[in-house]
Structures are given as structure tokens and as C-alpha cells.
């Protein structure tokens, strides 16, 4: 068992209350239509710039090349096989969803991508470079930011200060220089504050910037967590159930923000979400996990028609 295996990396501090099952969805997986979706849809087959849904605006960024290639990833915690021989890729600028019933290995997959878990087998190629035993800080420096399934914020700190922690990996001056508020450190801090204010405006949370996070309703805390991730100016954003436990209105807001981030900054997004309506509406491609194995991969239409996916969802007892 690895060091990481002793602590659940999707549940940092207590505070999260949600866990939605795969059945608490607003959308449904349809019955098989024109046969199974392809096991793997390459980027080229995704139609660039196309509006995914008539309600959604046209995408400003066309999907680019593969930037993350996961090949034959296997991860076990002692006897528990969390991931078995999983391969899929993520293209630049796309919204890539990972779905599957509880315990399918979705959070573990995100933890592999951002270097929290190190798979026993497989290759991870990020922007053309094979990565070995990468630490989460190194992943952050490479532009990968994430939010957690259970909110991981400092509850006693203000919204502003929490978001500021998202820029920690970008600080260049030493702690002493910052403590003395001296020269370049001062200029740097001003730059960080400006960026944080931009994120606050973007996510429309100006009114709560001085409020301690613990006093906020759950939906807003989730938004602050997104803000903290965005403050790191990531090129790839990993979102672990960003809408779980939210009411319909909060979900709509979060959906809009995710699409806005993707469209305005071109941020590549890997999204775990149980709400099938949301997944089908906003993602370009979907990978489906079940009991640690990949059972589907393709466009939303393809996975909706995949008999294995339908079976996993209809047959899931959780
Ligand atoms: N740190 C860990 N230690 C032991 N088992 C773990 C750990 N993380 C995940 N698992 C196990 O791996 C499997 C997949 O979990 P997870 O990735 O959290 O699934 P999902 O996010 O799809 O619900 C589960 O059986 C879970 O109990
Ligand atoms: Mg999870």
C-alpha cells in the first residue's frame, strides 16, 4: 500500500455534505439507439466550434491536439483495484467528462492526473512529456488546478484570502521579502491581488469577498473553490463533482461559469459529474468508468447509446 493510500485525497478537511448517487440525475441515459459508441473517439472527430446545445453559446476555442494521454493506467490500494488498465486522452480546450457510479474510480483518476496518486502501471504523457512520480505541486506548476469532491477551503478565512491561496505556487519572492513587504515582493503581491480581484469579478462574488467561507451557503462555497482553482490561472482544470449537492439554480450558475471559463480562457476541463443532463449538455467527450474499468468513451450521443453504459447505470444499485 502506498503512502497516499492511507488518506482519501478527495476528502481533505471535513465540511462537505453531499454524495449524489448516479441515479439522482436530471437527465437519463437513453436506451440503445444506433448501436454502441466507439470505444475511443479521437479529437479530430469532435466537431470544433460547434454549439453543443441550442441553449449554449457557440464555443470560442476550437479543440486542439491531445495534451494529456493516459495509457493503461492501473491503480490499487492494497487489494482494492481502483483503476484497471484505463486509457483515454484529453484534448486542449475541450470539456472532458468522467462519469460512472459511486466507487467507479473517478476521483482516483483525477488524483492520478494531478499527481496525488501514482499508478502502479501505465504511462501519463502531459504536453508531450512522460511524467514519472510527479508531485501535486509540480502538476500545479504545469498549469493543472483542481477542486475537490468535498470542499477543501479554510472555513475561518475570508473568501478573498482563500482565493489568494490559489496563487501560492506562483509566488516567486521569498517569504522574508513578503514579510517585509519589500521591493519586488510588493509588486508581486499587487499583481496577485489584481488577478484575484479579476477572478472575483468573473465569478460574481464581489459581495462576499470579505465573508468567512464557513458562513456561506454550500453552493457559494463550491463557487469559491472554483475561484481558488482559477486564481492559479490553470490551463487544465480538474473539477470533482462541482455541482453535487446544489439546487437547480446553483447548478445552472455553476454550469454557466464552467462554460464561460472554457470559452473565455480556453481552459481545458476534466469534469466529474453525476448529473447526466449537465454532462450531456456541456461536455465534448465522455469517458465512462465502472468498477475501475473503462466501459465507454465518446461523444455524449455515443455513450448514451452504448449498451454497456446503459447496463451499468440501470443496473447500479447505488
Ligand atoms: N486513498 C484510498 N485508500 C483506499 N482505497 C481508496 C482510496 N481512494 C479510493 N479508494 C477506493 O478506490 C475505489 C474508487 O474510489 P473513487 O476513486 O473515490 O471512486 P468515485 O470517485 O468514482 O466514487 C473505491 O473502492 C474506493 O474505496
Ligand atoms: Mg469521487
Walk me through this protein's architecture:
This protein is of the alpha/beta class and 318 residues long. It is built from ten helices and ten strands. A six-stranded mixed β-sheet has the order 6-7-8-3-9-10, sandwiched between helices. The protein has a four-stranded antiparallel β-sheet with strand order 2-1-4-5, with helices on one face. Helix 3 runs parallel beside helix 6. The two termini are 27 Å apart. Residues 1-41 and 43-57 have low confidence and may be disordered. The protein binds adenosine-5'-diphosphate and magnesium ion. Magnesium ion binds at residues 10, 106-107, 149. GO terms for molecular function: ATP binding. Residues 1-57 are annotated as: Disordered. This is Vitamin B12 import ATP-binding protein BtuD.
